[in-house]
Amino acid sequence: MQIYLPIAEMPVSVLLILGLGAAVGFISGLFGIGGGFLMTPLLIFLGIPPAVAVATQSAQIVASSTTSVLNALRRGALDFRLGGILVIGGFVGSALGVWFFAAARRAGLLDLVIVVSYVTLFTVVGSLMMKESVREFLLKRKGSMARARRNAGNHPPFLGWPLRMRFYRSKLYASVIPILGLALFVGFAGALLGIGGGFIVVPALLYVFRVPTGVVVGTSQFQIVCTTLVALVLHAIANQAVDIVLAILLILGGVFGAQFGARAGRNLRAELFRFLLAILLLAVGLRFALELVVKPEEPFSITVQESRT
Amino acid sequence: MRIIIALLIVVAWIGSASAENLVTSLSNHRVLINSNYTGTSITVFGAIERDAQTIARATAYDAVVTVRGPQQFLVVREKERLGPFWLNQDQQKFPTAPAYLTVLTSRPIAEITSDQLRRRQKIGIQAIIHAPDFTNDRGGVDEAFRDALYRLKSRENLYRENERGVTFLTPSIFNASIPLPATAPPGNYDVEVTLLADTVILARTLTHFELVKTGFEQQVGEVARDWSSLYGFATALLALFFGWTANVVFRRD
């Protein structure tokens, strides 16, 4: 069954879009990430104009993340304090990212900056997580039980910087400065690369701040809902590129997928969870790296600058 | 007196040169897009009228139908090697490229007219995309970009040339079917029909049709454009609502 998208101005297969929404929603619910970095390229591959793809998938992220946040809220797995600080830092970072985006475009380096940052971010974060989970796996194998994770005084020194705050839910007593720094970086990268940044927040909270896995997912989803809501409204106003029909289809598929993803995530062992996320990130990073170094079959590409009808 | 006679002769000669009159008509001047639109086709009919004095031609008529969609500002970029990386480097702008371009002919275009006439009168896709005013001339560098534009657009079926697209039903009546893929954007489309015989242009007509969104599709488009902040907030609320509903529906406790 085909349906015509009024803003993208093209027909799509309803089942295909529902399935796409469900698949990305599953991954999003499983790992507590937005999934935009998967959805946007897939939509563009289907022939949907890039501006519409970027703008519209944010509606789906809002919906699936809302579900996850509400779930986490009921299980008490959401740290509002930590989430709030992430949101504030994220907004400042986004503003800086948008400014840098324009500056890079003026300098004609935008393409290079985007591709290189994509590859670096995904490969670095993916490899770090992979290394960590393999080490954990080997430790378990050797029989020496996983090391006590939260010894007093056994934490990175920057958590002891001034402005310390207590985050009860996250079992964290740490300085606000590194958390704001993380949020700033995530907002910056998000605005620059058009990604929510969940895949940076999740590992950072897990490894650097040693926040329990359950709380990490809920809190990261909370931050994603807030930033993506703002992005969605801004996209609708500035670019008029949000396709409401496409959004509803993606959401319908996405909410189902996210439910099952979240459930699957709860039954997953923590090491396996991190290992799978690491593989996903490495795969995406590799894909971008390949695109960068392999000689393209068709070196030319067309972009529409403005439509005059 | 002599001058007047000479003028009359010239007028009569010009009149006889364009003795053929071309009449064309489209099957539809307004194509409506609704929610199950998956592309369509429009038929153009043409009839050639000849006045009584004109003698019948020894050669058959040829017709070329050129359809141009709404104009777009297109940029074609080329990936080139920079160190170990392949990156977009050079680019060529096409400020007035049609979003859709189809040329239908009754015979292979090379048999219909001379190369020179094709280029001067922009008959055929090659002549159109290689026309000097299509993009800025950069001394040959632009040629690869023009070809790439055609190649990429024809892959999406948005640019095409069909040398069997025009069918003559009788020696003086023809029709042609203009295929409109679903990805052809809404807007105004120009249909230019050129009548030729013996490599000479005899007549030309220009008609239009319009591809428009209707009903729900039109309203969504208008709200998104004219009430963009309202539309943005509505979409955001909708997304939140769906998320909340899913949470309630799937609640297990």
How is this structure best described in words?
- The complex is a heterodimer of chains A (309) and B (253).
- By secondary structure, chain A is mainly α.
- Chain A is built from ten helices and five strands.
- In chain A, strands 1-2 form a two-stranded antiparallel ribbon. In chain A, strands 3-4 form a two-stranded antiparallel sheet.
- In chain B, the strands form three sheets. Chain B has a six-stranded mixed β-sheet with strand order 2-12-11-4-7-8. A four-stranded antiparallel β-sheet of chain B has the order 1-3-10-9, with no helix packed on it.
- Chain B is α+β, with helices and mostly antiparallel strands.
- Chain B is flat and about 85 Å long.
- Chain B starts with a helix and ends with a helix.
- The chains are: A mainly alpha (309), B alpha+beta (253).
- At the A-B interface, strand 1, helix 3, helix 5, helix 8 and helix 9 of A face strand 5, strand 6, helix 5, helix 6 and helix 7 of B.
